[in-house]
Write a structure and sequence with these properties.
The structure holds two protein chains of two kinds. Chain A is mainly alpha-helical. Chain A is built from eleven helices and two strands, in the order ααααββααααααα. Chain B has one domain: Orthogonal Bundle (ABC transporter involved in vitamin B12 uptake, BtuC), CATH 1.10.3470. In chain B, about 75% of the residues lie in helices and about 0% in strands. Chain B is built from 15 helices and two strands. Chain B has a two-stranded antiparallel ribbon with strand order 1-2. Chain B starts with 6 loop residues before the first helix and ends with a helix. The chains are: A mainly alpha, B mainly alpha. Chains A and B meet through helix 3, helix 4, helix 9 and helix 11 of A and helix 4, helix 5, helix 11 and helix 13 of B.
């Protein structure tokens, strides 16, 4: 029964991994660009939630929306002021740009919020649910379920709506899309907004259930790389599946070998993937 | 008047040689030693990150292996720390090959991600491994048992040892620039597919560059731990160790012989100044500054200060210098 509990916990955390990783995979698939600051976006989403709760006394809906919206704006701003220019530049500046951004955000957060772990004050979401002997904390359950729904929603938006088609058109052939009357710059800015927004709301969901410090951004960023590499680049359903798998692997390895090994095993999996199946589970070869 | 091309090199060498004689106080000597060490590791990074254009953001893994090897040999077998240097280099080369083979088949992003993931993996693992002192780390000999321990009270011997290593590394890089190997590296950076179609053995050359870079980064790590007599996972494998190499090379000019030197010349005094002005709390501020500088370089001057200089320097000065 304890094992079942561990599995459920891992899947619920994995659902949040899936949500922020789908943001990373969107950018990657669309413009072949890696955002090294993606984990920091998640971390900022967590602190936005904290500020909204502490200063404005907002509930889960309020801080979830605030985190998604403020990170959406940040994503668009980062694209328009930085990424747009480095996309045309050499490889070095593409990698340096978001890598530097990650440092800037991480250490600014350290400076403002200190390195101490914090958690959200008790909200209306609390207590545990007993489903056939498996105890599920309500915050984790709500966060995990919402994360899965949002990831599916993002996938449907990309595949079933007009905006989604335009985004995919730009990623497939920028020039042809432009001839069809789509503005690539606007679409890419939107993609960055969506990507950062997904990270922000994932941060808010994570903040409901888990404590954090500014250093979590680095861990989440690397986790997102592994999820995207496992799921296949540019594939949101792949990210969903891979996120759940990674959450499960982390929970099980923490359970069997000790909590320190959960990240080691996941990163080792990443290196193994590069050797064996670099295109991921659902990626194109 | 015509200025011979070697003049800047001679002036630079002379300045570095006499620096400790003029600024002999312990503070200035410490800055000088830190500068040389930063220049060595950034120059080592430059071989694969600058010349070959394969941006590693996890070079700390080689630095850390190099740093642990001497102190581990001392702790386990009571050997002189320098006896451990070859082991660090061998392990670093093996690791470089292990990472290079799968990732160099793919596009450049994979290499960057793999390096950062492996560096983190090793850092976390060393933090739990009792043989290497886990989170506490390792210490070197407290007092020298003989000159071979390289444990000096004064920083002066370290300064000249580091300077000699830097000179060897720069000389080697200079030779690479002029050889076929150097042309291959630049061809790969400019366009991998084009280079391959012209018969450049891309995969092999990239791995060679990474191996060379890893070996010297490992040596830099060994020098660091022999000098400080202490190493822990954060100062060996921490992400900031990698960051410093990247930022110094990129600020000066990645893929330029003296790029890392120029970068270190600016960044190390800056870092010392912020640490002095803001005390212990200044370290966080230093990294905010680092992040800001990296973003600005990426956005405005991807070629670093060297390219900026080439663009804004007066034309007649440039012509004189080039001829």
């Amino acid at each position: 029964m304890l094992l079942l509990q561990v599995i459920v916990g891992g899947l619920l955390l994995g659902a949040i991994y899936a949500l922020f990783s789908s943001g990373l995979t969107l950018i990657w698939g669309m413009m072949n660009f890696i955002n090294f600051a993606h984990g920091e976006f998640v971390m900022l989403g967590m602190y936005v939630s904290l500020l909204v709760v502490v200063w404005l006394g907002g509930g889960p809906a309020a801080f979830g929306f605030a985190a998604a919206f403020s990170l959406f704006v940040l994503g668009v701003f980062v694209y328009l002021s930085l990424i747009r220019y480095v996309l045309r530049g050499p490889m070095l500046s593409q990698i340096l740009s978001t890598f530097g951004l990650a440092l800037l955000l991480r250490y600014t957060a350290f400076w403002i919020f200190s390195a101490n772990f914090v958690s959200l004050p008790q909200t209306s979401l609390s207590g545990t649910l007993n489903v056939g002997g498996v105890l599920m904390p309500v915050p984790q359950l709500v966060a995990g379920v919402i994360a899965i729904l949002l990831t599916i929603g993002l996938h449907l938006m990309l595949t079933r709506t007009k905006v989604g088609s335009q985004l995919l058109a730009v990623s497939e052939d920028r020039g042809a899309a432009m001839l069809m009357g789509i503005r690539p710059d606007r679409m890419q800015a939107l993609a960055w907004g969506l990507s950062a927004g997904a990270a922000g709301i994932a941060g808010a969901l994570m903040a409901i259930a888990y404590p954090w410090s500014p250093s979590v951004g680095e861990t989440f960023g690397l986790t997102a790389f592994v999820v995207v590499a496992l799921g296949g680049f540019g594939s949101v359903p792949g990210a969903l599946l891979a996120g759940l798998i990674i959450g499960l692997i982390q929970a099980l390895s923490a359970f069997w070998f000790g909590p320190i090994y959960k990240d080691i095993i996941v990163y080792a999996l990443f290196v193994a993937l590069l050797w064996l199946r670099p295109q991921g589970l659902m990626g194109k070869a | 008047m015509k200025i011979p091309a070697v003049t800047p090199t001679i002036l630079l060498a002379a300045a570095l040689l006499v620096y400790p004689l003029i600024f002999s106080g312990p503070f200035y000597l410490d800055v000088g030693v830190t500068f040389l060490l930063a220049a060595i590791s950034a120059s080592a990074w430059n071989i694969v990150g600058g010349y070959a254009g394969q941006v590693s953001v996890g070079h700390a893994m080689f630095f850390g292996l190099g740093a642990y090897a001497p102190l581990l040999c001392y702790t386990l077998f009571q050997w002189a720390p320098i006896a451990g240097i070859p082991f660090g280099i061998v392990f670093s080369i093996a690791l470089a090959v292990l990472i290079g083979i799968p990732t160099f088949r793919l596009t450049g992003h994979y290499f960057s991600m793999a390096t950062i993931a492996v560096a983190e993996l090793i850092r976390i693992y060393f933090g739990t491994w009792d043989l290497v002192g886990a989170a506490i780390g390792l210490q070197g000999p407290a007092t020298a048992r003989g000159w071979w321990d390289l444990t000096f009270r004064s920083e002066l011997p370290y300064y000249y040892i580091f300077l000699a290593v830097l000179a060897v590394l720069l000389r080697l890089t200079f030779l690479i620039e002029r050889r076929r190997f150097g042309y291959y590296l630049r061809a790969i950076k400019a366009g991998e597919r084009a280079a391959r179609s012209l018969g450049v053995p891309v995969q092999q050359i990239k791995i060679k560059a990474l191996v060379l870079s890893a070996a010297f980064t490992s040596l830099a790590g060994s020098l660091y731990s022999v000098k400080t007599g202490f190493i822990d996972p954060e100062s060996g494998f921490g992400i900031l160790v990698s960051v410093q190499m990247v930022i110094i090379a990129a600020l000066g000019g990645a893929g330029k012989l003296y790029g890392p030197l120029v970068g270190a010349l600016i960044l190390i005094p800056l870092q010392t100044a912020t640490n002095t002005w803001f005390g212990g709390g200044g370290t966080g501020l230093t990294f905010i500054l680092y992040g800001g500088i990296i973003v600005l370089i990426a956005r405005y001057e991807p070629g670093g200060l060297f390219e900026l200089w080439e663009r804004i320097a007066p034309r007649d000065w440039r012509r004189k210098n080039a001829s």
